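Data card: per-record layout.
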Amino acid sequence: MKIDWLHPLIGHPGPFATLFLDATPAAEAGDRDVANRWRAVRKSLAQQGAPEDVLGAIEEVVLRPLWPRGLHGRVVIADGTGVLVDRPVKSPPAVASSTWGPVPALLQAALAADESVELLCVSVDRQGADFVRSGVAGKDRWSYEAPHDEIVKSSSPGSSRSNIEARAEDSWERNAEAMAAEIERQVAATRPELVVLTGDVRAVNLVRAELSRTVADRVVEVAGGGRNEGVRAGSFEEHLDDALDSYRERRREQVLAELRQGLGRESGAVTSVDDVVAVLARGQVKELVLAEEFGSAELGADVAGDGRLNGRTLWIGPDPLHIAGTRGELEDLGVTQGLEELPAAIALVRAAVGEDAGLTFAPEGSVDLIDGVGATLRWHDEGTPNEALLSMSGDDQRK
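The structure for this 399-residue chain is written out next.
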């Protein structure tokens, strides 16, 4: 999962306010409304030193709903210039939390990205297509009208039914070719992870048959959508949610399978805080993998427990590759300015964002992770640390 959209936060001068709260409407949450939940968080941020202009900018955002329905949380990051990140999270936190500090709390923002899918939804009928491109940058909508308009199989004076039906069939096929070409163009331009195709069943089949294999491999058909006002939006949204959940699982499993394979063959992957720090400092990381519990932790907290981080901190410098276990290690490299000590999980995510690595949260039991962290690698050489044998031995207590 790409988290490059968080890159502008790296090196951005702080301090930052980060909040994680339940944004579920009161009618569905069964308790206080969002405004009341925000007031409690606002008070906490003010007590931590957040200035009034930052609090005002956040309030203007959080009182506007992101999602119209269902349980969900919300992650917001802001500084003196305004709101920098505003993302929904499927599972709301049990307790709202907030921090005001020199660096943003990136874990919950990364969790929001883990749930996000760069999506192109295409609703087709025999005359054209409606496009919705959604993802971390928001939503864009536009329509495309196909060039052939003789699509109705009805008789008219002087024309045989067979001729009319043949012309209509030909128009359907030509329109499908045109819509497929437009979908190909939009996929190339907007680069979605997934393409959802919905609408008129006959049109969907004709359009999909005209797509190249490269694009067709990204396509999932979802029933219930369409271009007409009479479409049952609720039914389509439920089917779409199921399709997105399935895609997220496939995306996550691809990363975890690569991690398991790399650890098993002792090449292409590492685990443990020390080894992940080492490969981050060398710019080797393709995908940072964290135990799922890190994403659900309270803001500003590190995860405690057997084999986890137990409050451990790391040191960072101004460059994303400046990450080490101690301040002295960075000073030995000649880095003496802009040094900061951060909770380990936040420092790891910051380094991953800075070197354009991805990030995946691993569900409990899905992969053996020393300290709850691991990484797949872009490349592997003799200087790459190796923890595979230690991991296989079951020793997850190395410090």
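Known properties of this structure: The radius of gyration is 25 Å. Residues 233-265 form the longest helix (33 residues).

See the next section for split statistics.
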